[in-house]
Amino acid sequence: MPMVGLGTWKIPREEAQNVVYEAIKVHGVRHIDCACDYGNEKEVGLGIKQAIDEGVVTREDLWITSKLWNTYHRYEHVLPAAQKSLSDLQLSHFDLYMIHFPISLKFVPFEERYPPEWIHDPKAEMPRLELDFGAPTHMTWKAMEELVDQGLSRFIGVCNFNVQHVMDLLSYARIKPYANQVELHPYLSQLPLVDFCQRQEIKVTAFSPFGSASYVVFGMDYGLNRGLLDDATVRGIADKYGRTNAQVLLRWSTQRGIAVIPKTSNLNHLAENMNVHDFTLSEEDVSMLFSYCLSANTSLLYRWTLSLVLTRIFASITLVSSASSWEKRFQSLIKCL
Ligand SMILES: NC(=O)c1ccc[n+]([C@@H]2O[C@H](COP(=O)([O-])OP(=O)(O)OC[C@H]3O[C@@H](n4cnc5c(N)ncnc54)[C@H](OP(=O)(O)O)[C@@H]3O)[C@@H](O)[C@H]2O)c1
To answer: What CATH homologous superfamily does 6-336 map to?
Structure first.
């Protein structure tokens, strides 16, 4: 798997063919990260096809990843879901097909909605996410393994799996996961998970390598309201090497054996992102970026502790005030705290 790929989440459909074609032709991209959920596999497929038809690359030169969406975790839905992605991408096989999340959602037929996304019925009076408890991961994985047997994917993998998920999977897997794709950047270094996966010879791919830049609009970026692309400390390091923040953030992972799949629709950014192999960050600078994780985690820990304390205080107020005697109230309070 090439260490730097192109992420395709949020590349608008109308731009995807050209971005992918130019990425392959002009910028030497050989690894493309796709998914049913990104809603643009047809257009990404057109870009790949154009590059192959014009003789820019052969299929064998490329590494194409796609992902099984959460609504297709039941054994019988895995093959049709993989075939649908292959057909949209106009490919005969994936290099890597991954379980997108360790979360099973209630099935939505293709003809009803594709991609189905998270909410089961967006038109319902109370639209909500509906979990499917009838799709255990071991059955999903069995169907994934059969994709390899049938030549539909060279390798299979997982995304967003923690150490316990991977340990459980390894207890029954006939075919080991090739890679685990997880959010990874200096705010979220995932050190224990990376260490565990690498010891098990499972590759790690970092998504959102710029510090959740894509999640800022959703307010899901650790509340910091910025990624690391404009960060002054990262810039200080970047200046030392005559590089950009983006390049430093990518190199921070790749030089530790972690693949990266930054998304961009901007071909200048793409050129930058592909040009990260010819410098090495010093150990001191690598460590400096790890310190972000500690401070981000510290602030998360602080918020988590605060919310736990507040919850307990509210619980104790409720219980204590509903207890009939002072003695009972005191016992309730001790139990709560
Ligand atoms: N498995 C999963 O659950 C999962 C979840 C999320 C993402 N992913 C994958 O990981 C990929 C990347 O993650 P992501 O999209 O969340 O975030 P990302 O790659 O960390 O950040 C993307 C943002 O960075 C900007 N950008 C890219 N290169 C830049 C550069 N050199 N200089 C300045 N800005 C730059 C992009 O804007 P421009 O387009 O304007 O350059 C975009 O706004 C996704 O596309 C997807 O393939 C997987």
So the answer is: NADP-dependent oxidoreductase domain (3.20.20.100)
